[in-house]
């Protein structure tokens, strides 16, 4: 089957095909690691599980309780680089509105969504899209998405945001504002864990004015051959931090301890990833974990990822002087954020387990 250049994965999924086009089939070495995500998540295995951090304790007012919570968060950032956050301070009602708005947008006919399509070739990266350009190994990913900047306010282009449903814009604006406040809180804890002043990491990634929050709603349609495809291929996030909501359908896997570990769905949680930017600034003390998304044939999966990114060219990313010593030399060369993204983009797929 030949895929038209404008084919959406949702359209393929709903077309009644029983075999996916060859462009979506992963290389043989990857296929041996792809499991039935729904079957696996229902098996109560006793393998490693990513940590859950209760942020309620960080506001307790009791110094010992606050310090214990901070230590747990830093331990998770050091050992895993990913964690579930519960009692994060963002209301259930707001999160429900954000999810309802995103799901309502994607429930529209593809023709309606196409009115918001992006055009990567012309530099219009915001909007509705699919990964249509082949990667280095020639595979495509089984997902459609909607991508746009949500914070700071002066960097938003509301003309590319969906006007349907009505609550999409107000709910997303409020959510972005609250995620931005949560970002400050997390970066403060991570800074103190490196022996730095509380505001140092935030300052190093652009501060109040320059740190950019980008929202990507990932839509993973049902896949007739999920054992052959990936929703998102193995990667580490280039961001400083990434915050993820999902519709409680499993799919996220982390490469931990030499194996792929499936993240269980924790109700009312936000998943936090440490990105490459913080790994570089901390000289590898905080980890940016390799992860991917699996798909299934029974349920549509939707996730909402907010990437917190430094400005592309204004800051040189390199290990902070306080994280470097004679016994711990710098692990990363100086690069701008743009240069780091380009470096990763052109890396060969054989390097995927060593994503630096």
TrEMBL record:
Superkingdom per UniProt: Eukaryota
Keywords, sorted A to Z: Dioxygenase, Flavonoid biosynthesis, Iron, Metal-binding, Oxidoreductase, Vitamin C
Biological process (GO), any one: flavonoid biosynthetic process
Entries under Pfam families matching the protein: 2OG-FeII_Oxy, DIOX_N
Species: Lactuca saligna (Willowleaf lettuce)
Cofactor: L-ascorbate
Domain Fe2OG dioxygenase: 207-310
Protein's UniProt name: Fe2OG dioxygenase domain-containing protein
This protein's record includes keyword Transmembrane: no
Family: Belongs to the iron/ascorbate-dependent oxidoreductase family.
InterPro entries per UniProt: DIOX_N, IPNS-like_FE2OG_OXY, IPNS-like_sf, Oxoglu/Fe-dep_dioxygenase_dom, Plant_2OG-oxidoreductases
Molecular function terms, GO-annotated: dioxygenase activity; L-ascorbic acid binding; metal ion binding; oxidoreductase activity, acting on paired donors, with incorporation or reduction of molecular oxygen
Keyword S-adenosyl-L-methionine in annotation: no
PROSITE patterns: FE2OG_OXY
């Amino acid at each position: 089957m030949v895929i038209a250049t404008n084919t959406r994965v949702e359209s393929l999924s709903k077309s009644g095909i029983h075999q996916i086009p060859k462009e979506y089939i992963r290389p043989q070495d990857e296929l041996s690691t792809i499991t039935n995500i729904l079957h696996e998540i229902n098996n109560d295995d006793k393998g490693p599980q990513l940590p859950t951090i209760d942020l309620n304790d960080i506001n307790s007012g009791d110094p010992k309780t606050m310090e214990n919570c901070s230590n747990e968060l830093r331990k998770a950032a050091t050992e895993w680089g990913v964690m579930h956050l519960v009692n994060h301070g963002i209301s259930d009602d707001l999160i429900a509105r954000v999810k309802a708005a995103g799901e309502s947008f994607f429930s529209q006919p593809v023709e309606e969504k196409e009115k918001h399509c992006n055009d990567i070739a012309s530099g219009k990266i915001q909007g509705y899209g699919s990964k249509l350009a082949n990667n280095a190994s020639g595979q495509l990913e089984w997902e459609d998405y909607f991508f746009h900047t949500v914070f700071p306010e002066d960097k938003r282009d509301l003309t590319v945001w969906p006007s349907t449903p009505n609550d999409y814009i107000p709910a997303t604006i409020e959510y972005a504002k609250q995620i931005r406040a949560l970002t400050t809180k997390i970066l403060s804890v991570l800074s103190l864990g490196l022996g730095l002043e509380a505001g140092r990491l935030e300052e190093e990634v652009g501060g109040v004015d320059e740190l950019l929050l980008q929202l990507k709603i990932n839509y993973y349609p049902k896949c007739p051959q999920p054992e052959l495809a990936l929703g998102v291929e193995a990667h580490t996030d280039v961001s400083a931090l990434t915050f993820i909501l999902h519709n409680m359908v499993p799919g996220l896997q982390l490469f931990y301890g030499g194996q792929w570990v499936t993240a269980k769905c924790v109700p009312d949680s936000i998943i936090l990833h440490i990105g490459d930017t913080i790994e570089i600034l901390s000289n590898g003390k905080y980890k940016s974990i390799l992860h991917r998304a699996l798909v299934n044939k029974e349920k549509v999966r939707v996730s909402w990822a907010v990437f917190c990114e430094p400005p592309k060219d204004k800051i040189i990313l390199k290990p902070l002087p306080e994280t470097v010593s004679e016994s711990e030399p710098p692990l990363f060369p100086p690069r701008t954020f743009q240069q780091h993204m380009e470096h990763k983009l052109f890396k060969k797929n054989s390097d995927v387990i060593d994503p630096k």
